[in-house]
Amino acid sequence: MPAPWAAAAALARREWSNTWRQPAEWLTPLGFVVGVAAMFPLGLGPEPARLRELAPGLLWIAALLGSLLSLPRLFAPDLADGSLEQWWLAPLPRPLAVALKLAVHWALGSLPLVLVAPLLALAFGLDNLTPLALSLLLGTPALALLGGLGAALVLHARAGAGLLALLLLPLQVPVLVFGTAAANGGANAQAALLLLGAWLAVLLALAPWATSAALSLMLD
Amino acid sequence: MPRPHPIWRYASPAHFLPLTGRLLPALWALAALGIGAGLALGLFIAPSDAQQGEAYRILYLHVPAAWIAMVCYAAMAFWALWGLAWKTRLAFVLMRALAPTGALFAVLTLLTGSLWGRPTWGAWWVWDARLTSALLLALLYVGFIALTSAIDTPDDPRRGDQAGALLALVGALNLPVLYFSVSWWNTLHQGASITPRGSAIAPQMLAGLLLATLGFWAYAAAAVLTRARRLLQARVESEARWPRALGGLA
Predict the structure, then answer these.
(1) ipTM for the complex?
(2) From the CA atom positions of chain A, what is the Rg in Å?
């Protein structure tokens, strides 16, 4: 196997087993979303018609906030123990290393959420679950890509997770707008899903480069 | 080797400081004159609006503020790109100097818009596309300022500079999509009244608006340049401390 492929496979394996062995880290966002979803009926009242109408937006906002939770620990341990420097020396392009790391982060941190969200939507009385599931399937990788950039930028900042939210929320607005429009399943849903996919493609093409530039900054 | 155009020497603090020192008094004077004349014309001389009565007069503050808030972000992103590409020290200083002024005008846009909305739309705030994107622009400024100040250490502004530049660039690339998504989401704001083809408002209103805009632009430029001079002086002094501190060690 050529060296870059071997390095990529080793990196993906390491990330996967490191994350997999700490269920608290990748299950927390899921628990958070379930908990927040349980708060909405308690705060808004149990009226089924209203909950059904609000459910896609509420679940999307819960998913957006949940995606922020694990970001402070995304790159910080790798910077602290020096493994970030090892990847930078590894024979594989840096944006690819970042993309691999984010892919593992998404597969363990967000994919379970995409699978659980339709069940939560059932509890809110939604009939057609496909639009919500599809919109989250396309939207959560976009959130993870932007989140990786934010996590890299605040690595040396003397501030808590609040700063990360402040940086990321305005950047994540297009994802939220297209995602909720697609999840609501109205006349615009098809267009919204296509726009969400287009924006995900743009982010896939650009975000790993920006994130690896930010990480390089944090290493000097 | 061809000599570079003389304009490039102003990228060096040694030329930038004297130049801005000469420009600043003129800019402050222009700001006072423009704002004074524009507001006098707008508040006292221009006719009242056929539909909105006197309430429209906040336009002389609201419209320039909105223009400046948007253009300052573009200028910040421009200097961010310049600084990342050519590593000139002045670029990052200008980028940082622009942020507080841009944030000020973004907040001013929101406040004046809110005051204007109450009598004319009957609500302090509506979740319309333009209002929401103005709010998000203000948040982008606040995020930039918060990030750079959380990264900075007293003696080394470089990492804060570069992280801030990356954020400003990403924000600027995101803004068109953000604006599109939000206007796709909802729109209610009145359309633009001034276009390059002509204007739909009375000549005195236009004159007052243009004078006020000129004045606020001069104010923004003067404030940014003053802040850039202070930042630059602080950096030069902090760098000058190093040889002195090392000399003390030897």
Answers:
(1) 0.88
(2) 18
